[in-house]
What does this fold into?
Amino acid sequence: MAHTEAVTPEALIAAMGARARSAARTLATLDSSVKAAGLRAAATAIRRDAAAILAANAQDMADATALSTALRDRLLLDEKRLEGMAAGVEAVAALPDPVGRVIDASERPNGLRLSRVRVPIGVIGIVYESRPNVTADAAALTVMSGNAAILRGGSEAMNSNRAIHRAFAAGLATAGLPADAVQLVPTQDRAAVGAMLAADGVLDLVIPRGGKGLVARVQADARVPVLAHLDGNNHVYVDGSANPAMAQAVVIDAKLRRTGVCGAMETLLIDRAFAQPVELVQALQAAGCEVRGDPVEASIGPIVASVSDADWDTEYLDAIAAVALVDGVEEALAHIARHGSHHTDAIVTEDAVVAERFLAEVDSAIVLWNASTQFADGGEFGLGAEIGIATGRLHARGPVALEGLTTYKWIGRGTGQVRG
It folds into this structure.
């Protein structure tokens, strides 16, 4: 939109919403192959504009000196990550389209045939921070699921987001899809986020993807339904029967593969019956992780920094982990229930009975047995990409991909039935 400074944030979002609504009506009627062709064209455009996107990201990185190492890692794009972004868009294009899928069907005694059919949600607003790849992931998922998107990225990734969006939109246009299917809010004015949250009737859903502060603001202020992606205060519980080599491999990967992702382990719980707690903690430290625990715990040695009460509730997003010794799975479950964020938690054990209890009783969106929490990712779940990990209990939970961006409607087919 031209002259965005001359209009209020409310008017800006209303105008973008009107264009998005028109695009959404078109997208909802398109065949899967047409949407897929548009995404493949968008992926081609991202690769074609790689130099411009990386130059824009370099500018963002140069301006991001105040960010932590973990947040800078989230912001950084390189050739490998850019190719992964384009490949992710193509992966979404290859997924089965949920739109039009019949969930169930029945025939009433009067002959009325009913079915529930998946349909797009409509116009989705996505507010996110730091990671510019979200621009491409969100755009691909919304288009393939027949929705239009209004994106508002963080100021730290402003140049990267604009370059990615420019390429993506150009690719869609070459394939004949509506240019307004994916729009990027052209201002970093925080009032624009407020306007999105108040845009009931303009937006059908808002998805926040970022830190606690962003999600809390969205949930507090939104008059539009919210699909929340909360923080990942994730746990790995090493049971007494765990294989020590497996436990070490899982714990180190869960914490240190990428410390800045929401699937990273933040707290390590070790059963007092586990044979090698000292070796496990030392392995973490040797790999570069600061470990915080209770220094009076003789069984893990005088080798850890003192832990505070706040550490159990902290998502570090850094090479820091809190560690606690627990008396078996019962105490581990109680700790996770008290301090977890319902995101991703894992158990390492050779005892299938203990494992199944953990899987059944941990109330998180993702619960894993003998696997790293870093698998909390839509791509790893075969979903192509994700718009976030939903930690609530309604509509969608865990990695939100195509199906999570649809709702359903009832369709009735009759032969003149009346209730009388």
